């Protein structure tokens, strides 16, 4: 059992304690209950008071003997008998339940509104009848005098189902687009419906006419409330014959008197979450309002806080048992713990069926700090990778659950110690150091700088000294940050070290320093104004605008200077990185492979080449000249010219020469009469472009030229083998 105190009001959480995992067998559960002391000391107010996954709504019968809860998964309804402190029955349903109500004093008549627009009726033996409404429903109320069920939902109409006649009656037409909640006053049976537009429409069931409209959206906006968006009505509850409480989707609760259109009190939860449950306590004049995060109890006269409950899980619905034992259901967590039961001893004695709680709260008051499963640790797949335990997936040592696994806490501690064997030693040394420093703090010690954020500490000390040295102070000075326990960790933990070389700090530093300077100037100005009041001359403009413009210019210049420095440092850093990369780069030779071509097929004749190497130079020249690959010619100035031509190229030149000789027969005689001869090789090169045909020429001599002219010789042979004269 966990005990907490809010505003000196003790709250006893009966469901707090160890929970047994679902996968354990009944035998192991009994063994743990016998051996484990914490489980033995756990208080289970109602046996099996839990849901497999999530509980959506909870109700208490009018005779106070039965507690009914609807939840999932699978959709079901469970009924608990408080006289037997155990589960009475459980029924599974076809779909999830939006809300339900108990029409009789006991559990014999139940009505369920489902998500799929079905309305299901249950009797004492089980399912009785099922029907359907035209639109999706959100809430309903039962009018006992006429046996009418009023359904509201995603429609502007209020559907009426008469249970005595067994048929639908004419609907009530409202001015709203959608209706969220509804309620009927138990005294004068006034029907109220909360709309999406933030209005409450009141109808008289006797004449089926609308009698009043209350605009709650406009009244919820006050000086002490924080409203974001259009406040829609999310909860309604009548209090007596004249009182009504309205909850909005923006987190406000408005208390009205039906005789006035203005609220008596507006209470804000300051969470911005929709209010879904409102209850009243008549003896102490308290109002209980709940959203998905917190349950607040406050006085309805002045709104002063009485107590509050803020569980670790979300809250879906709240029900009270004479405002002493409080049940609230929660959303899904890592495991399905029991539905929380909370006892307020300050509200009065416990009910008759649990009168033993008064003795338990006095004898077994304790403050344990335990997790959901103290003997098991929930780990994710990433945690298993870090610990090196991925090979255990699928083994009995890991129990798959949601996005992770449950493993034995002893195994987890052993693996954690093996992964980081010095973690405990470091933790122990740190604790010893903290103890020593705490003992030294009691002695008289000199002022010294902290180990973390020394520059910031010096700056704060200087500001404190300037503040103390001021001549006059109108009010009491604020506590220094250095002596404030809230900021103590900032000067002890190295994780809070301010990196002054970071880009963010350097860009924000001009702004922060300028703001601090303006703040100090403002303080000095207020002090000076307190000492003496000087009035400006009429018609003389103030110099504040000029000073502010100068400050803005200096701030812009500082920002530009910081940006230039950052860009220069970034450029220098990139240069150093490139230089380091050049140093680390090692030059390696690159090899290329030539493709086989027609000109290089002769290179494969290795035997012929080796034979040519053994012969003399003269014999090789004669052999090349006879084969037509070598051409030796004399120039006009007496130099020699040697031309080397491949066989394939020479064949192409012969074909071109034959074609040209047929066309230029008449030009032979003219060429012979001139006394000069233009060699065939030179002409071919002139017309074919030389090297453009892929020819390989090697020219040796003292005088090299593109064109070769020679004197006519009778013994000269052309490429066709015919002589020329």
Automatic annotation (TrEMBL):
SUPFAM superfamilies: WD40 repeat-like
Keyword terms, alphabetized: Nucleus, Repeat, WD repeat
Compositionally biased tracts (Basic and acidic residues): 570-582, 715-725
Domain annotation NUC153: ranges: 484-510
UniProt-listed Pfam families: Beta-prop_NOL10_N, NOL10_2nd, NUC153
Region (Disordered), start-end ranges: 525-557, 570-589, 649-725
Subcellular location per the Swiss-Prot or TrEMBL entry: Nucleus, Nucleolus
UniProt xrefs under Gene3D superfamilies: YVTN repeat-like/Quinoprotein amine dehydrogenase (2.130.10.10)
Chain coiled-coil ranges: none
Domain Nucleolar protein 10-like second: start-end pairs: 372-420
Every Nucleolar protein 10-like N-terminal domain range: 1-367
Biased composition (Polar residues): 652-673, 693-707
Cellular component, GO, one term: 90S preribosome
GO biological process: maturation of SSU-rRNA from tricistronic rRNA transcript (SSU-rRNA, 5.8S rRNA, LSU-rRNA)
Family: Belongs to the WD repeat NOL10/ENP2 family.
Protein's recorded name: Nucleolar protein 10
């Amino acid at each position: 059992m966990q005990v907490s105190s809010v505003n000196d009001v003790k709250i006893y959480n009966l469901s707090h304690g160890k929970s047994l995992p679902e996968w354990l067998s009944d035998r192991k559960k009994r063994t743990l209950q016998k051996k484990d002391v914490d489980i033995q000391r756990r208080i289970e107010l109602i046996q099996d008071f839990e849901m497999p996954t999530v509980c959506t709504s909870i109700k208490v019968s009018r005779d106070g003997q039965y507690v009914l809860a609807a939840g999932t998964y699978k959709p079901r309804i469970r009924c608990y008998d408080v006289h037997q402190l155990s589960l009475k029955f459980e029924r599974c349903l076809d779909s999830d339940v939006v809300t339900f109500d108990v029409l009789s004093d006991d559990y014999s008549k139940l009505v369920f509104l489902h998500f799929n627009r079905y309305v299901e009726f249950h009797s004492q033996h089980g399912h009785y009848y099922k029907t359907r409404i035209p639109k999706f429903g959100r809430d309903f109320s039962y009018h006992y005098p006429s046996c009418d069920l009023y359904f509201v939902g995603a429609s502007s109409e209020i559907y009426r189902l008469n249970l005595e006649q067994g048929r639908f009656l004419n609907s009530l037409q409202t001015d709203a687009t959608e209706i969220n909640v509804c309620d009927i006053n138990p005294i004068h049976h006034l029907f109220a419906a909360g709309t999406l537009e933030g209005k409450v429409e009141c109808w008289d069931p006797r004449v089926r006419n609308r009698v009043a409209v209350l605009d709650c959206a406009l009244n919820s906006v006050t000086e002490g409330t924080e409203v974001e968006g259009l406040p829609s009505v999310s909860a309604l509850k009548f209090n007596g014959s004249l009182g009504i409480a309205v909850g909005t989707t923006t987190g406000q609760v408005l208390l009205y008197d039906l005789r006035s259109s203005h609220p008596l009190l507006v209470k804000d939860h300051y969470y911005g979450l929709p209010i879904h449950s409102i209850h009243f306590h008549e003896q102490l004049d308290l109002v209980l309002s709940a959203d998905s995060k917190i349950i607040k109890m406050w006085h309805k006269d002045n709104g002063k806080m009485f107590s509050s409950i803020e569980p670790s899980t979300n809250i879906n619905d709240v029900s009270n048992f004479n405002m002493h034992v409080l049940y609230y259901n929660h959303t899904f967590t890592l495991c399905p713990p029991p539905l929380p039961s909370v006892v307020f001893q300050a509200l009065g004695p416990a009910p008759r069926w649990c009168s033993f709680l008064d003795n338990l709260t006095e004898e077994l008051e304790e403050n344990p700090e335990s997790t959901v499963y103290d003997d098991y640790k929930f780990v994710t797949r990433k945690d298993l990778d870090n610990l090196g335990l991925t090979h255990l997936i699928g083994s009995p040592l890991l129990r798959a659950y949601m996005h992770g696994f449950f493993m034995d806490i002893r195994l987890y501690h052993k693996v954690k110690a093996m992964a980081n064997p010095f973690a405990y030693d470091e933790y122990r040394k740190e604790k010893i150091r903290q103890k020593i420093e705490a003992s030294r703090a009691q002695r008289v010690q000199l002022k010294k700088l902290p180990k973390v954020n020394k520059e910031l500490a010096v700056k704060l000390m200087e500001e404190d000294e300037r503040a103390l040295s001021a001549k006059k102070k109108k009010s009491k000075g604020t506590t220094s940050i250095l002596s404030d326990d809230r900021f103590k960790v900032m000067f002890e933990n190295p994780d809070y070290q301010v990196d002054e070389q970071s880009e963010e700090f350097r860009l924000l530093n001009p702004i922060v320093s300028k703001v601090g300077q303006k703040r100090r100037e403002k303080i000095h100005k207020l002090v000076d104004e307190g000492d003496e009041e000087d009035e400006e001359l009429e018609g003389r403009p103030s110099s504040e605008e000029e000073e502010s413009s100068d400050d803005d210019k200096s701030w812009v210049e500082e920002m530009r200077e910081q940006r230039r420095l950052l860009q220069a440092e970034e450029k220098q850093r990139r240069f150093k990185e490139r230089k380091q990369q050049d140093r680390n780069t090692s030059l390696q030779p690159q090899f290329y492979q030539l493709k086989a071509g027609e000109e290089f097929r002769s290179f494969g004749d290795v035997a012929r080449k080796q034979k040519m190497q053994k012969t003399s130079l003269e014999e090789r020249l004669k052999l090349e000249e006879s084969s037509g690959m070598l051409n030796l010619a004399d120039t006009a100035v007496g130099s020699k010219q040697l031309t080397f031509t491949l066989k394939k190229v020479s064949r192409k030149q012969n074909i071109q020469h034959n074609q040209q000789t047929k066309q230029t027969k008449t030009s032979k005689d003219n060429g012979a009469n001139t006394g000069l001869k233009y060699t065939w090789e030179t002409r071919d090169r002139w017309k074919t472009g030389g090297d453009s045909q892929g020819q390989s020429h090697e020219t040796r001599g003292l005088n090299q030229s593109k064109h070769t002219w020679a004197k006519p010789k009778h013994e000269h042979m052309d490429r066709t083998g015919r002589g020329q004269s």
